[in-house]
Amino acid sequence: MILAGYVGSCERAWAPQEDKSGQRRAVSRECCSAVCSPNSWCMFGAMSSEQQPDCLHYPATARNREPILEVLRRVLPATGRVVEVGSGSGEHGVFFAEHLPGIVWAPSDPSLEARRSVDAWAKASGLDNIEPAKALDATWDVWPWEQSGAQDRAREVAAIAAINVIHISPWATCLGLLAGAKRLLKPGGVLFLYGPYRRGGRHTAPSNATFDASLRRRDPTWGVRNLEDVQAAAGEAGFALQKVVEMPANNLSVVFGKTK
Ligand SMILES: C[S@@+](CC[C@H](N)C(=O)[O-])C[C@H]1O[C@@H](n2cnc3c(N)ncnc32)[C@H](O)[C@@H]1O
């Protein structure tokens, strides 16, 4: 059975891990030691992995979704399409779509397994304001919403969100995200990033430093980004920093607005 797994500090989602015991397990080296039963968290009542075999379960989404929602309520427009980059399991999408009914959530991920999970969660939710997950690698020169025939829809994109993505991928992902956001968003459009950051080149907590080291061991191109580096790259892409919100577990919500 393939199950969603976590390695790292509390927040940190990783690729799915095999669980030899047959339990849905949050794998951890540090503080995230929870072992969940298959139905320990489910928005839609009892739903076993047998009933919904494509649904991945990332336990951190249950912990961070409420604080993230509170920020999204403040920074997103009441209506419009929100493109999510790196949707992962898709659990965030159904939660935000449920609580932001004026928004149309447009999930995406380069991983087929992730997209299947996103679509399975969306189907189980019964919500009609989640679009089918699109294949998207943020580094692509053309994003699906820009393709021929979709030009008019591209204009509707009000915001782009990337949660726990830019540190668990190469720096090129961040640059691709900014380039795509520049092409897709209108002036005033919102780019929302969530995750751990260094500030002024320094980690904000020992757990983030440990997490950063574990990321770089796993892949030297990954790592906790320096907020000022992201801000500078965003500035070059035409985005101004609007808000930095301190979040639980030493994460930040970082909100940029498109200036032109
Ligand atoms: C740590 S998971 C986060 C998933 C979800 N946003 C969450 O917070 O639970 C990172 C996700 O980013 C995706 N990803 C990695 N590189 C990417 C890229 N270049 N473009 C878009 N998504 C990417 C991965 O496939 C994965 O689903």
Measured as a percent range, the helix fraction is: 25-40%
CATH superfamily: Vaccinia Virus protein VP39
Number of extended strands: 13
Radius of gyration in whole Å, from Cα?
A: 17 Å
Provide the CATH architecture: 3-Layer(aba) Sandwich
Describe the protein:
By secondary structure, this protein is an alpha/beta fold. Helix content is 31%, strand content 21%. It has seven helices and 13 strands. The strands form four sheets. Strands 6-5-7-8-13-12 form a six-stranded mixed sheet, sandwiched between helices. A three-stranded mixed sheet has the order 10-9-11. A two-stranded antiparallel ribbon has the order 1-2. The structure holds S-adenosylmethionine (SAM).
Write the layout of secondary structure elements.
Layout: E1 2-3, E2 17-18, E3 24-25, E4 35-36, H1 59-75, E5 80-85, H2 91-99, E6 103-106, H3 112-125, H4 151-154, E7 157-163, H5 171-184, E8 190-195, E9 197-199, E10 202-203, H6 206-218, E11 225-226, H7 227-236, E12 239-247, E13 251-258
The protein binds S-adenosylmethionine (SAM).
Quick gist of this model?
The protein has 260 residues and is of the alpha/beta class. Helix content is 31%, strand content 21%. It has one domain (60-258): Vaccinia Virus protein VP39 (Rossmann fold), CATH 3.40.50.150.
Q: Any key phrases for this structure?
A:
alpha/beta; disordered N terminus; three-stranded mixed beta sheet; single chain; 7 helices; six-stranded mixed beta sheet; Rossmann fold; 260 residues; binds S-adenosylmethionine
